[in-house]
Amino acid sequence: MSPDTRPRARQFPTWTTRRWLRVGAAVSLTVLTVLGLTGAWVLGRTASLSDDLVDVKSPALSTSFRLESALLNQETGVRGYGLTGSSDFLTPYRQGLEDQAAHTATLAELLHDDAAGLRDLAAVQDAIETWQERIARPIAAAPAGTPSVLTTERAAEGKQTFDAVRGALSSQQEQLRADRARAVEDLGATMGLRNGVFIAIALVIVALTVLAFEALRRGITEPLDQLGADARIIAGGDFDHPIVPTGPADLRRLSGEIDFMRRRLVRELAFTEEARLRLDTQAADLQRSNAELEQFAYVASHDLQEPLRKVSSFTQLLQRRYGGQLDARADQYIDYAVDGANRMQVLINDLLDFSRVGRVHAELRNLDLGPVLDRTLSALSVSIEETGAVVTHDPLPTLAADPTQMGMLWQNLIGNAIKFHRPGETPRVHVTAVPEGELWRFTVTDNGIGIAPEYAEKVFVIFQRLHTKDAYDGSGIGLAMCKKIVEFHGGTIGVDPGFRNGARITFTLSTEPPRAADPSDLPQATRADVEPAP
User: Fold this and answer.
1) In terms of CB atoms within 10 Å, which of 46, 81, 147, 171 comes out highest?
2) 437: left (phi over 0), alpha (psi -120 to 50) or beta
3) How far, in Å, CA of 466 to CA of 453, rounded?
4) 533 pLDDT above the threshold of 50
5) pLDDT, greater one: 416 or 329
């Protein structure tokens, strides 16, 4: 989907995820705190009403009934004593007085915060005091044994005053019943409010939980899922797929930074791909050029053989037939021509051998380098005997290598070590081999004239000579050929700059066969590759 057809990102405020979480947590805590305080108040109110109902209203009403019972006991005892004069009737009267005092004190204590209740209690006490003063105490004070005259005389007043007591008690009890009923009603309403508050708290908690999950889903989970999906698409290879920022500000900023990185990677990949294509083109051109140069070298070497043989043959015939018959200058010219033809023959053969490295002699197999070195020393036996050279070597490993190329490598290195010896000093050459990981490092050390550090690289360049042909013979191809052989076998070669008492050539060879070149990249062999040099 192109950027123009993708859905537009949801517009979020500039708040970050942390700010959203802080605000959400603060709001949630505020709401829960308010609801908690409300619930605590409702619980306290419910407990207060319940305590008032249980500890005040209900006990006050029951105490009022017990006070009424105590007064009835007094009235019955006084009336019986007044009619009979029997002192037995004074017992319930006296007990009633004690109960009256106790119940009145209890009511006063229960109703100490209720002004209306205290007024009703005072009215009851006034009525009781009037009845006791006019009726109960005078009759109870009369002598026992005979009926009291006051009973008959004050019967109507006694009835009237005790009815007043009953009326005051009834009024008090009605008021206490009403208070108790209101307390029960308030308790029921408060309990209903309590239940409602706790239901509201539960609903708010559920709502906050749902909102929190929904906010996390929309604000964090979905943007991260979208970012992950875009990242997986890009990781799958669609580097042009844009990342659309969604969610809070920090997540959108993260998405933008990742998209910026994606765009930068796209640019880097485009540049890398362009560079790779250029390198492939250059490599193909270089490979083609090298193949053409090698082919030219093969053809030139082969085509130069025939005219060079003719020049060499005829100059040698001139030397044999007319040598000594011409003047000294003519003999010198003939010698120059013969020597030049011979050196040209050697140079062409060396060039042909150099071009064959890696093409013709490429028979890689497990090769014990010890016997190869021994055969090389046998081939160099003449120069070794002439110079009295001493060549020694450590045990050599078995590697995947071409036997012909290894023979050429040893012959050039040891031949150079013998050739460039110090005048008047016996040449000594020593070969070592030590493992280095997946490679073997070889050294060829001699006590010859050595190689100056500034020529450490130059000696491996083809046709580069450090001495004139009059001082040391040779074509200047030997070390260049050694470098080509070593690199063909996956190693490197160089001069040890720290060695001073002669020269030390060090090179590495891989234990594994080198990667084979594509046969199509190599030029076709000509007859010069298989014909021996004359």
Assistant:
1) 81
2) left
3) 12
4) no
5) 416
